[in-house]
Amino acid sequence: xxxxxxxxxxxxxxxxxxxxxxxxxxxxxxxxxxxxxxxxxxxxxxxxxxxxxxxxxxxxxxxxxxxxxxxxxxxxxxxxxxxxxxxxxxxxxxxxxxxxxxxxxxxxxxxxxxxxxxxxxxxxxxxxxxxxxxxxxxxxxxxxxxxxxxxxxxxxxxxxxxxxxxxxxxxxxxxxxxxxxxxxxxxxxxxxxxxxxxxxxxxxxxxxxxxxxxxxxxxxxxxxxxxxxxxxxxxxxxxxxxxxxxxxxxxxxxxxxxxxxxxxxxxxxxxxxxxxxxxxxxxxxxxxxxxxxxxxxxxxxxxxxxxxxxxxxxxxxxxxxxxxxxxxxxxxxxxxxxxxxxxxxxxxxxxxxxxxxxxxxxxxxxxxxxxxxxxxxxxxxxxxxxxxxxxxxxxxxxxxxxxxxxxxxxxxxxxxxxxxxxxxxxxxxxxxxxxxxxxxxxxxxxxxxxxxxxxxxxxxxxxxxxxxxxxxxxxxxxxxxxxxxxxxxxxxxxxxxxxxxxxxxxxxxxxxxxxxxxxxxxxxxxxxxxxxxxxxxxxxxxxxxxxxxxxxxxxxxxxxxxxxxxxxxxxxxxxxxxxxxxxxxxxxxxxxxxxxxxxxxxxxxxxxxxxxxxxxxxxxxxxxxxxxxxxxxxxxxxxxxxxxxxxxxxxxxxxxxxxxxxxxxxxxxxxxxxxxxxxxxxxxxxxxxxxxxxxxxxxxxxxxx
Length: 705
What we know:
membrane; elongated; DUF3488 domain-containing protein; Transglutaminase-like; Papain-like_cys_pep_sf
């Protein structure tokens, strides 16, 4: 099937019609679109494959060569091949296309390759519109202040591209119009931020099969030691008042009760219900509060994204501002995974939970039937020395770790086999917190005491000061820790054997491990800041500012919006919020309409046309307006013949307006065709107009009816 174009020649359905010059993109617009694509791509490159920049570069080179008539226009086969190669590269990179990063990468690739078929002004507007969508998807990666600033700059550039396509004659004029549009939109943006009902953010989407650094469902003795290599953020905590002492900052995440001789794992609610039966409320409760002892700590957590449901708490969790799942073993779980940073307000006891039904005590005494015979015998001997007193047993165990040559290290020797507790306790005697906690739980159970291992974090780097009234803790992955809870005297008691071997780890936090092989080995240059006081201070100030940003801007949810209205007006009503939003939109609309009506003229893209129209308004008062269809130069020369006393000024104005209107400023820059600066032409025009009007007011010339 073929079609006829305007020249009478025929073309096939896969070929595009040639564009007229006024509808085709020029060098200026095309270059602006390409730079905009690069800016959008930069927002993604920290999370996307670096090779995605190659399609953008190749598409731009093809288009620029096409403008030079060195290559033909990209056909449909070339475009399909390009997008197929991008999709294949993403599949090889991620292993599937249903992963979130792969889908974002495909969107970015389509946007970059769109330049291949961007020939007309309409295509340019489509590229700018697609750029806004791809830019918004960058917030799926990060919502920090740097991303916000970069997004605003990129949006400004894309709007400038739309202004250029709309008819701006030079880049400077486009930038000035863009700044004007951004300034007009700022009050509306701020008003909608405060007034518009808070909805779940666009970036709150499921993270598919995403690898996450942090604690896992099951732990072997060396697993938590591996987290000491990373300085990735785990969460941040803000306290109103004094911070708890470093030795009391035990952030429990979950408990490990099942041991198979090699690994410790969780007794999840589902496993307990299958094994023991009964209602699910026997093992977990969905609520905002649980009954128990009085809360000792009140704080706010800024949690990092994590597809796992756990929520850290300083001791046993007691209450939160969101409905959560309180497990009977003191674990707190969210009802949904964290797909973005989230603020959570908690109250907790600062101590282990007191609840321990009989079935839980029996569960926390289970051991494998075989393996570790020397450890079993050693535990029985310790209990005999303690005369059956659990407190004395733990005291003797602490002294054993403290007085014997045990060594705390991030790189312990590898232990294999079915008697790993024996090998660690009597042979290697070198390990991380998990080795000591695992061995202690095994010995306590062998002695007939219910015991379990708790995985979480210990410590945290403090930010701020007590003088501010607010203090914050930054907890990182290298703060990961494991300790023991032993049940006696009708409640659980915390026991941390690491304090016997490395007391500085408890009193000073994980930073006391600096210098050990493997500590922060994966942190790269960020580890250098810990040894540089200036960089360390700058890092803390930046992290505190970022926390404020996340809390006040990204975390500005419905509760914060309601609290803001209550602080301003004393009470909150939904109808006030609706009327406030409608009033803001009406005010903006009225302001825009008032500006248009006040101007009393159509908007013109050319400064010369606007200046001539202002002069016409003045001349029309004396009956000297233009005739129908009369050009500006002809109009002024006709008046000059009628008014010989002012002929020189009017002839000069006629020459200036023609010079001003018909010089192509986009090609000649800031000079006209005679080498005279355009700003000089504007000044001369203004001077002649002022002289003419001044003479008219003084009656020196006959510009009257």
